[in-house]
Design brief:
The chain has seven helices and four strands. The protein is α/β, with parallel strands linked by helices. Helix 6 runs antiparallel to helix 7. The protein is elongated and about 70 Å long.
Length: 189
């Protein structure tokens, strides 16, 4: 990511808590800041809790000019006076990223940019819950089959199975309602 050669994707470090992911992140950030070859590379660090930000800022012992904090709490933001767009390291909360990216892409969220460009390295620490519950109709689900058939055939097949199951469920519900209607009609006679 820092070199600009990694494909734009999600990279997961699936390790148990307490084995050193955050410590590794801390060392990586300090090394990146000291690298002459990466002076234009910026990092966004997203955490679920404000105290995680405060702890990491203290642990990393960063120069105030190198980082900024962007949360909904002024006292946490006050850990650095450096403007967000000028700080190579930006600490924020996952909730802030979700709020600011709700109506567009991360690249459109200028509040997270460094020198007017999206940050190259983005870290979402610990919890990976960037999604929201979304309800779609069976017609919307069916419209995904075509676009997915070539790139993700197993997913397209799963959608077909879900459609079939949904149709069977609908038929069963209609039959149950019809039987109840017949029973009600018979009771009136």
């Amino acid at each position: 990511m820092a070199e600009g050669t990694a494909p734009s994707s999600f990279y997961l470090s699936s390790l148990d808590p307490g084995v050193g992911k955050t410590t590794s992140l801390s060392h990586f950030v300090r090394h990146l800041l000291g690298s002459e070859h990466h002076s234009d590379v910026a990092v966004l660090l997203c955490f679920s809790q404000l105290d995680e930000i405060e702890h990491l800022v203290e642990e990393m012992e960063l120069d105030q000019a190198d980082f900024a904090v962007f949360t909904s709490k002024d006292e946490v933001n006050g850990l650095s006076s450096t403007p967000r767009g000028e700080a190579r390291i930006l600490f924020t909360t996952q909730a802030m990223v979700r709020r600011r990216c709700r109506d567009g892409s991360f690249n459109d969220a200028e509040v997270f940019h460094f020198q007017c460009k999206p940050r190259a390295v983005r870290v979402w620490d610990e919890t990976m819950l960037p999604g929201e519950v979304v309800s779609i109709t069976t017609d919307q689900l069916a419209s995904l089959r075509g676009p997915l058939r070539k790139s993700h055939p197993a997913l397209a097949e799963l959608i077909e199975h879900l459609e079939a199951a949904s149709a069977h469920f609908f038929i069963c519900v209609v039959l149950v309602e019809l039987l109840e209607l017949i029973k009600a009609t018979n009771a009136l006679m």
